[in-house]
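Justification of computing resources. Each target in the renewal requires a structure prediction run like the one illustrated here; the chain below, 217 residues long, is used simply to show the kind of job we budget for.
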Amino acid sequence: MNDQNKICRSCIDCAAGACDGKNGMYPDFCPTAEIQAGGTAAALCNEAVAQYLNDPEDSLIAKASAAVEFENYCKLTRVEEICEFADKIGAHKLGIAACVGLLREARTAAAIFRHHGFEVFGAACKVGAVRKTSIGLDPIQETLGPHICNPILQAKLLNEQKTDLNIVIGLCVGHDSLFYKYSDALCTTLVTKDRVLGHNPAAALYQTDSYYSKLLK
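Resulting structure tokens:
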């Protein structure tokens, strides 16, 4: 456990919710309080607002996101929200970057997207069938399968297809990071991989006071 005295406090340490319109007080370490007082972060906030107002793409995305939330709050599943969002930003061709272990789920998602009028192109994580040893991995790692996950190639294949919005379905931690890095199109995530918890990683957070207390020890 880290020394509590060395923790740099930030939004994740706050339970006041004042920035969300609740009645709590801004704590001393609150970035919003600093911004409202004209501190150094105020310029960053102004820059962000300028982006939403003046950058055509950022403005479209911000407004579409807000509209999806406002119009469908607690009404639509995430896959439905993606359809709504894609429609609002004018996306026509959707890319799916999927784990091979979730191709069935990816096919179902593709069927839903196609039913809603979108063109869909997908790339599985093992595309290219590149041996793990060919990128310098220890041969022992091939006991889990001979081929690497190839998120850079997934991104490049979707880039080649000129997709308008890319959707991640179950890429591994780190592989998803590389996919986001190399994707030309805007990205969102439909499924976050967690092999232990049935792809519901939040379950570990909900149970840190019981089954997953080991995470804080």
